[in-house]
Amino acid sequence: MSKITSYIRKLLLMAGSVVRKNHNSKLLYYHDVFGDKKYTDMGTSLNLFRQHVSVIKKEGYRIVPKITKKEGEVAILFDDGFRGIYDVRQVFYDEGICPTVFLAVELIGKECYLTKEEILELQEHGFVFECHAWSHEDLTTFSDEELIRELKDSKEYLSELLGKEVSEICLPIGYFSDHLLEKIRKYGYATIYSSAPGDYETLIHGNMRARNLLQSADTDEVKYILRGGNNLLKQHYINLHYKKIVVNP
Ligand SMILES: [Zn+2]
Question: pTM, whole model, 2 decimals?
């Protein structure tokens, strides 16, 4: 993001946090938190993450594994299953933070990504794992035939690996179409996570959860976002990810 764009974004966040000020529960997402070794440019340093946690608490929010209240709760989510969170796992255990991590089957065990053993160890300590499809690509570009692997086989594979029913999916790269959402529902997912920001209770397009990306946010931005700052930017992100033309045959 260019300097001017990031400056304007910050101003919009600040404005949104004033005009739409709220204490509504929110989903917050990252790609990784890393200690000594960085696995992705999308990672957040442990130092910055600790600062985020302190702002979240100062703003009067409780970090919970699953949001159950309209106000005052946040849940922390990670996309892709990078290995940094395993390196710094003790911090999560000590803080009592149980994040949800979305796994793309094809990435498990690859360089820079969690292995099966690490996933199971984290699960023992309260981390929750859900689906991020099979190949981690824009799902709106797949045929119905290919979606069987992306949506059905991935669900079965992960349910088997984790020893529990996987019923939540996060859209890789965030793109969605009406046809895709219909398929996802057909394959039995109870919850769909988008990449568009907003409050927990405000569903996007009928049944997608809004999530707020915090990985590069400074402490002011975290504060604005917790106070509802993203509400002015929300429609922009929805438009960015919604494919009105059905690509699939
Ligand atoms: Zn992803």
Answer: 0.93
